[in-house]
């Protein structure tokens, strides 16, 4: 059972996870500690918003923590861990949410014997809808893994994967919400350009995206089958899809995911 969790790094991903944990009441705010290098204003905002415990004293933040979440920028990993590694105990589990950084790289910095779990949530965690992938090293016990899965289940769904697949997951679901938002931006812009008021457009787009996601989840049909079911010959949907094909829409999406995956790999190389 978790008594204390500490976040080292106070960026948007850390906040999304904290918001989900607090909103779902999985832990009390007094059990959640947050620290960063020197941004006291950021810590102050998190404390005011979630009533969590915030401090720039990184040693105090991680002392007696059951779980230490590494949530800084990947390029800050070495400096951040060097500042706390002397105070990390073998009974504490390290949970990384850093894009591209391997378990081996973290273990090298932290030291042998400390269990490390690598995760890739997304920012939908703040409303309980993250899709989180989890990979662990051999030193992580089943009990520790169960606690981590239970924690991340409070902010959405969890999937246990092999670490070798984490770069693909990063490009797919880690960055995925941004692709959907980008699509929504374009749909809203054209709707307004053709005379629809912005508020109406937003409502229709939000419900359309939500409904499509629920159909994928509940219907049991593949995306291809669902697409074909609503594409009548010579109809409006076919006209729209033909334009997407002319503009190589599917190729653009595939290359988008590949580019994000490659950046994840590059980030990992920098932290070896």
State the main characteristics:
Rossmann fold, 2 domains, single chain, ProC C-terminal domain-like fold, alpha/beta, 272 residues, 53% helix, 8-stranded mixed β-sheet
CATH superfamily of the largest domain: NAD(P)-binding Rossmann-like Domain
Distance between the termini: 33 Å
What is the spatial order of strands in the main beta sheet? Answer: 3-2-1-4-5-6-7-8
- Coarse shape: elongated
Oligomeric form: single chain
**Which fold name corresponds to the CATH topology of the largest domain?**
Rossmann fold
Structural class: alpha/beta
Describe the main β-sheet briefly: 8 strands, mixed
pLDDT < 50 runs, ≥5 residues? none
String of helices and strands: EHEHEHEHEHEEHEHHHHHH
Radius of gyration: 21 Å
How would you state the average pLDDT, rounded?
Answer: 94
Strand content: 5-15%
CATH class of the largest domain: Alpha Beta
Q: What's the number of helices?
A: 12
Give your account of this protein's structure.
The protein is α/β, with parallel strands linked by helices and 272 residues long. It has two domains: 5-167, NAD(P)-binding Rossmann-like Domain (Rossmann fold), CATH 3.40.50; 176-267, ProC C-terminal domain-like (ProC C-terminal domain-like fold), CATH 1.10.3730.10. Helix content is 53%, strand content 13%. The chain has twelve helices and eight strands. The protein has an eight-stranded mixed β-sheet with strand order 3-2-1-4-5-6-7-8, sandwiched between helices. Helix 4 (77-84) links the parallel strand 4 (67-70) and strand 5. Helix 7 (166-174) crosses helix 12 and helix 8 packs across helix 9 (198-218). The protein is elongated and about 65 Å long. The protein starts with a strand and ends with a helix. The mean pLDDT is 94.
